Structure to design on (177 residues):
């Protein structure tokens, strides 16, 4: 395949690959590999497996094949990173370079504490009742106690928690895209 054809496909599908990799790579993997590196590996694996001239016309089959390669790259990297258990050696989760999720950076390791701070910031942007229920459930407060605090039944508290989790999941998808 010619390099201009490859460059055209990279430009066409790089956002799709980046979104998939960013969504699929967990905190442990992001401590050792950047999203950019994983995307590059996905494209390399994809291009190595293509027949010469296959990319003259971008098709949905090629795109699906590329995204499948990206999933495999993330899975392979995650398996390799799985041997590195635990948090960073810095003790409190601090590391030399930390990606700032709000600024879109992905060039440094992301600790569990970074992930937790990010999720708590997203929770604070939700409706006050939903945010309160999520904070209480994160502290493992039983639904009956939440119901007493908010003046509702335990079943209503459970349902509100389910709706709050859905709202948070939607917020996370919006933030990651």
């Amino acid at each position: 395949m010619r390099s201009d054809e490859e460059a055209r496909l990279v430009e066409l599908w790089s956002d799709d690959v980046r979104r998939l990799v960013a969504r699929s790579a967990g905190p442990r993997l992001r401590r050792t590999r950047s999203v950019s590196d994983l995307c590059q590996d996905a494209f390399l694996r994809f291009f190595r497996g293509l027949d010469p001239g296959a990319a003259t016309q971008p098709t949905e089959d090629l795109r699906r094949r590329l995204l499948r390669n990206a999933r495999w790259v993330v899975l392979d990297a995650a398996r390799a990173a799985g041997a590195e258990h635990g948090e960073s050696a810095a003790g409190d989760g601090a590391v030399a370079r930390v990606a700032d999720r709000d600024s879109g950076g992905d060039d440094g390791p992301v600790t569990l504490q970074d992930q937790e701070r990010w999720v708590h910031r997203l929770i604070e942007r939700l409706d006050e009742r939903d945010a309160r229920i999520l904070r209480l459930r994160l502290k493992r407060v039983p639904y009956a106690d939440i119901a007493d605090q908010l003046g509702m039944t335990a079943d209503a508290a459970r349902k509100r928690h389910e709706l709050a989790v859905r709202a948070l999941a939607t917020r996370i998808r919006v933030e990651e895209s």
